[in-house]
Amino acid sequence: MRIALVILNYNGIKHLQAYLTEIKQHIHEDDRLYIADNASEDGSVNWLRDHHPEVELILLEKNHGFAGGYKRALESIEAEYFVLINSDLKFTSCWYRPIISAMEEEPEIAAAQPKVLSMNQPEKFEYAGAAGGLLDRWAYPYCRGRIFDHCEVDEGQYDEHQEVFWATGAAMIVRARSYHELGGLDEMFFAHQEEIDLCWRLKRAGYKVMSYPQQTVYHLGGGTLSYGSPFKTYLNFRNSLLMMIKNEDSPLFFKLLWRMVLDGIAGLKFLLSGQARHCLSVLKAHGYVYAQIGRLLAVRKDLKVLVKQSGHASRAHIGRSGQSIIWHYYIKGIKTVADLVKS
After folding, report:
1. pTM above 0.70?
2. In sequence order, what DSSP letters do the residues of 19-83 get, joined into one string?
3. H/E element holding 6?
4. Buried b (16+ CB within 10 A) or exposed e, 306-316
């Protein structure tokens, strides 16, 4: 197996200094580590050349974001499996090899992730991925172990491996052949939820996306954009709508209309809680969609043709709820996926 581990870096010298040595200690000797740098301005590249000269560098001419940076980097790497890892990730083992062994036994598995726990609160799941990503009826993402901002304590409640809807971009293993077949990461997203868009396409083409919580990593989170950033809010709302327009199989108009109404309610909630900049981020996200709707519908049409060429039945219903996570979380007070299943 040819396995390439790829870290995307943008002004992340502090994370590289804190975690890279330990990451290298847990990488199998046959595997190759690459760092793709999005034109960092904090001395990251010089520090890497001085302290880790054996690491293979891919230097990009500007900051292309998570999606664009990885897209360019992976186009230049030949491997059977890509392991995408954030620079603020802590390894305690060679966690990706057992997962790839499982993927070798099931060729229909295109992407997978380990359990992701919080670096600062290791007893809790971490926001970015937890024990596997899910999607609700209106294309709002949540996880086994995390609904919106509520992260559960890990008590082994999600330790069984199972098919999910999406795998976290913080620690994602993806089969290179499948990745390229479905067009890879979409740089229109820049950052946030591009991995969900990729997994949605993979599942529509009949591939599986898996979570293997027997393997664990620890994630700091908020390394490039803090979780409270208005720009992050903009990207999350905008990109969720982008992937919905691209990938939703059912009739789009009324579902998209209702989804935007729900977004408007969220924006009003931001405003009433004194977070006017986050409310503005929601409005800007909708403005982008209005301005780009023609382009997005063209992408949607082309993607339908691409997915149909796979010749396999869609698996996009697996890991997706027919209910509204907003209704269950805010109205019924359900905070965990285990309770959501019971209800």
Report:
1. yes
2. HHHHHHHTS-TTSEEEEEE---SSSHHHHHHHH-TTSEEEE-SS--HHHHHHHHHHHT---SEEE
3. strand 3-9
4. ebeebeeebbb
The amino acid at residue 8 is: L
For 1-343, which CATH superfamily applies? Spore Coat Polysaccharide Biosynthesis Protein SpsA; Chain A (3.90.550.10)
- The domain locations on the chain are 1-343
Contacts of 44 (CB under 8 A, 6+ apart): 9, 11, 12, 13, 16, 37
Measure the CA–CA gap between 62 and 247, rounded to whole angstroms. Answer: 29
Kindly state the tokens that stand for 9: 């870096």
The phi and psi torsions of 112 (rounded to 5 degrees) equal -160, 165
**Whole-angstrom Cα distance, residue 35 to residue 237?**
29
Identify the helix (H) or strand (E) that includes residue 14: helix 13-25
Cβ atoms of residues 31 and 81 within 8 Å:
no
Helices (H), 248-318: 252-272, 276-308
Distance of CA 73 to the CA centre of its chain: 17
Phi, psi (rounded to 5 degrees) for 98: -60, -35
Tens digit of pLDDT at every position of the chain (343 positions): 699 999 999 999 999 999 999 999 999 999 999 999 999 999 999 999 999 999 999 999 999 999 999 999 999 999 999 999 999 999 999 999 999 999 999 999 999 999 999 999 999 999 999 999 999 999 999 999 999 999 999 999 999 999 999 999 999 999 999 999 999 999 999 999 999 999 999 999 999 999 999 999 999 987 556 667 899 999 999 999 999 999 998 789 999 999 999 999 999 999 999 999 999 999 999 999 999 999 999 999 999 999 988 889 999 999 999 999 999 999 999 999 999 988 7
